[in-house]
Amino acid sequence: MDAPAPGPGEMPEDPFALHNSASAVLDDRGRVVGWSDRAQEHLGYLPDEVLGRTALDFLSDPRDREAARDAAAACGRDRGRSGVLHVRHRSGRPVELGFRARPVIRAGSTREWFLVFAPAEEVRRWETDRSVLDGLFRRSPIGLSVHAPDLSILRINRALAKFTQLSPVEIRSRRIGDFLIGPDLQTIERRLRRVLETGTPLIFTEQPCRLRSDPGRERVVSVSAFRMEDPGGEILGVTQLVEDVTDRHRARRRLALLNRASALIGTTLDLDRTTRELADVAVPDLADAVSVDLLESVARGDETAEEESGAVRRMAAHSVMEEALGVMYSVGEVFHFDPRTPQARCLAEQQPILEPVLLSSPGWYFRDPERTRRALGLNAHSLIVVPLTARGLLLGLLSLWRAERPEPFEEDDLTLAEEFAARAALCIDNARRYTQQHQAALTLQRSLLPQALPEYSAVEVAHLYLPADPATGVGGDWFDVIPLSGARVALVVGDVVGHGLHAAATMGRLRTAVHTLAGLDFAPDEVLSHLDDLVMRLAAEQEPADGGSRGRQIVGATCLYAVYDPTSRRCTLARAGHSSPAVVTADGAVSLPDLPEGPPLGLGGLPFESAELELAEGSLLALYTNGLVEARGLELDEGLDRLREVLSRPGRTLEETCTDVQAALLPEHPPDDVALLLARTRVLAPERIASWELPAEPAAAARARHLAEATLTGWGLEELAFTAELVVSELVTNAYRYGGGGPVTLRLIRDRSLICEVSDGSSTAPHLRRARTTDEGGRGLFLVAQLTERWGTRYTRDGKTVWTEFPLTADES
User: CA-to-CA distance for 246 and 252, rounded, in angstroms?
Assistant: First the structure.
């Protein structure tokens, strides 16, 4: 009978083993003189049927009889033979057998032949498996080692012997610890013992592998292992297959590092953070220490240019060794590289530099001998310097060191560092460009909006400004506090349609116009009328000449303009499409005055109206844009209710109120520009104001001089009395001459300056002119202008007021 074929993965038994093979004995004439039971099973002949007969006569197939005779002859000439024969079964069917023949010498020098044979298929399987086993030990490129249960080495193949640089014979009976160093040895022995104990194979498990013969070289191997057992289940040891996958591991690690760098570098447009991200990603996967240095102009956010000084700024530094940070230049430090250093050469040539052995590189050291000594103590042995360039501009350089990792940098590491730096440089350049734009936006914002509001006698103020676009830092909303004549103050809040720089530019033009109109002392409704005309002209300027489209245009704006007089506690307000302000009394009661609702600026042809409120001392005016009360998806009424609730809490400073309003009504990033102006009213004490109504007669000027002199003396301003008398006399004389015959009002106000006002019923404005030498008059206003700090005219419903201001010291005011 044929032996059953082995199952999948089973090793076939030796078909010529005595317990498994058939056997026969032939004499020197080819006659059968011995016949085994297994021979009977394979060929069907009983011993009595074959003994004494010539084997060729009854076994060989007639077609192969000649080949059988040749095989028999060959057996007679040499020491043995093996091969495959086609024979005939007793039933007549052909049988293919593999055989081995060996000569046996009998007494008298008689030669007989001992044959063992088995089915050819079993022989071929066994020969194939034996060839595979032989190939594993002789020709396989994958390392193979066989270990006893105590993990001593029984046998290794040639590939592993080459890996260890020893011959297979030299390695036998040794242990793994004779070749591997500490941590790597412990890892592999632990894993092999687990295979021995559990029988669970180890499959393609990667691990570091440092040889004692070459401890400075990084190796990574892939290990597979299985337990060996005999047919009875006794454990014979463990076999492991070892493949050097160092190159594959490095390639995979480099790709992972590049992917990680792409994900982690440039998460923001902040230059400092971007350089820190670059340093953090490079350590420890590529280097033990890293520094990022930018040209000083780049670090400032300026346009890059040739820097004669060659100054760089240390932007980031990172190291696996804490003590290394004490040797390196500090973050934020501005310094120069010695011209002999690799860094200086890299900046000059804009080419990467690889120094595998740092000590052999000229000029690698620091200018400071102590710092050089400490660097040597850290065993820094290898260096890569790569320029950071983007869009053709040199931005700085990246320096990488190795100290704890024993293997030096290689060309592949330099290639990786170049790709690494190229990706990082783009992010750094983007951050640099953003810094430039952000600084430009902040400069624009500082030029368009008031930064630090001065102290005013009329009001105490605080403000909140948040643009919808934090990248530009400006928007279309604005606020302003403008001092006016007579200790009055104008409070302004406006909102230009749109966001960003375009809206901000239009806002700047409107704010400039408001300042000009306020300087002319127009009433609030007149100011809005002039602004309306300006917005219409701006919209017309933006219309393309060819009738096409330029994208979204600024087509309108809203504005609230209020004038508060601390002498009368009256506030005059007008609005153009804007929300009414909130008025908060000293006890926390909040109201929204019902002001006439004017149209938004830019519609044209519609009138604006003013309203007047009388405010108690300490009242709070809250002027705001719609972005404040319509954030977080609130309806207008909901936003106003929430604003009332926050403003009704007494006992806080204006700055604290601004903070509370922001926390209650605004998200972290408002969807619209927000402006809030808070003004707490003040009142000038009656003793700081003096007012008289003088009849329009020639003696009015003298009377005015006397009243002014007496009042200023009472205020302790005797030094100003003479000058003030001259100015008052001139203004009252002009009012008498050109005021239309009505009474003349003189008012003196002692504020941060001394204010003199003369009012009459005429609307004719005085004009400053240069008198000729032959003129008898025309020099009065010229003297007024020379003797005062400021002067001007404002119009009222009943005429005009000419005012002047004299500067006062802090003690006098």
Answer: 10
